[in-house]
Predict the 3D structure of the following.
Amino acid sequence: MSRYSFARVALHAISGHRRWHPAIRAPEPRTSYDVIIVGGGGHGLATAYFLARLHGIRRVAVLERSVIGHGNSGRNTQVTRSDYYHLPSARFYDRSLKLYEGLARELNYNIMFSQRGKIALAHGPHELEILRRTANAILMNGVDTEMLSVDELYRLVPALNRSPRFPIAGAAVQWRGGICRHDAVVWGFARAASQLGVDIIQNCEVLAFRKRGDAITGVDTTRGSISAPSICLSVAGHSSELARKVGLELPLTSMALQAMVTEPVKPLLDQVLISTLIHAYISQTDRGEIVIGGAADGYTSYAQRGGLPVMEANARAAIELLPRLSRLRIMRQWAGIVDITPDTSPLMGSTPVRGLYINCGWGTGGFKAIPAGGETMAYTLAHGHAHPLIEPFSLERFERGALIDEAAASGVAH
Ligand SMILES: Cc1cc2nc3c(=O)[nH]c(=O)nc-3n(C[C@H](O)[C@H](O)[C@H](O)COP(=O)(O)OP(=O)(O)OC[C@H]3O[C@@H](n4cnc5c(N)ncnc54)[C@H](O)[C@@H]3O)c2cc1C
């Protein structure tokens, strides 16, 4: 497969773009691999890529029941940032943000990464005090963040409501935060992994697991049985159901998280805006659409679709923040099934089943974690022990009570 470049695009333009090769191979599944990754979302594909790229393990299959990116990795609101409160989270997410900063070059793929700043609003003096304390903790974690006065905020976001129902007292901004085109991250990792010899097998659902004693030996799929000594589950909202098939109970709740976009308009909002109290997060895509997200549905569900009550709540919050949005039409609304742990931190590493690894519990915030998730899980699979950055996120933290409570980090209720 050839490298993408300006010269190549120009060359193909001459032939009417009819001679491009498929970006990803479509191989038939083999009967055995060194590693099987279940789930062709960002995390599964990034893990496969780093296994091949950093550890020379290329007999790797990514098994995806639908098409790659059809899960949460292609449904999220694209926010990338690393301003987390607890040190283990800050270290992990900042590593991910640093990888994002060089990812387009690494993958030779335009991921449309835009570090436009992510602003968290404080409504009233009490919230401002908490935001200040959080900002101090983030700075002490070695991650950038900055407090903004009300005047600075309104200069940055002129469209922001001057007199919302809950008056704005200040804000915190992480300038390295922003958005990144989600499909491109999936496709970029898939193309690069495929180029290194990883087999990405779509329309291949894992139905059951094979075990010998306490060790995993393979999977049964809709396209036959495949064996491997190491298997990693990266199936987000379907993790608990799939793990149960191998006798493993995971502390996860699956819920739908919804989002929506308006029709495209001229530039209106340069940053990502989050309000915990009014309860929405908003950004504008390069195409001009306004992306709006809010709270997760308050109940367990596997229904991957949006609903009117959430659309209404999100629209109400968005208009309260940016009144000019009131005359825009909603173009699309959708949902993804997110996998939420009791402390809203991820679950990564080995399991009591020998050879079985998990990379899940990303809940509503795992898009920003894709590069570091892939890098650290690849290390863990290659070495058989957890990468130091993800040791705190092991399954057995729930036995020890060593929870990393990041419930406040998402900015809206999840
Ligand atoms: C509306 C919404 C907004 C979000 N906004 C943000 C945000 O702004 N920033 C952020 O950081 N995160 C955000 N997230 C969360 C983020 O999208 C996820 O945490 C992340 O994409 C998870 O990636 P993944 O690869 O683990 O899972 P996924 O991308 O969901 O991939 C899992 C894959 O596994 C496949 N699968 C399931 N079962 C099987 C099986 N039995 N066999 C084979 N394949 C199977 C699925 O088809 C799916 O493709 C949001 C999520 C949603 C839904």
Q: What stands out?
A: The mean pLDDT is 96. The pocket of flavin-adenine dinucleotide is lined by residues 38-44, 63-66, 70-73, 75-79, 205-206, 234-236, 238, 242, 257-259, 293, 336, 338, 362, 364-368 (CB under 6 Å).
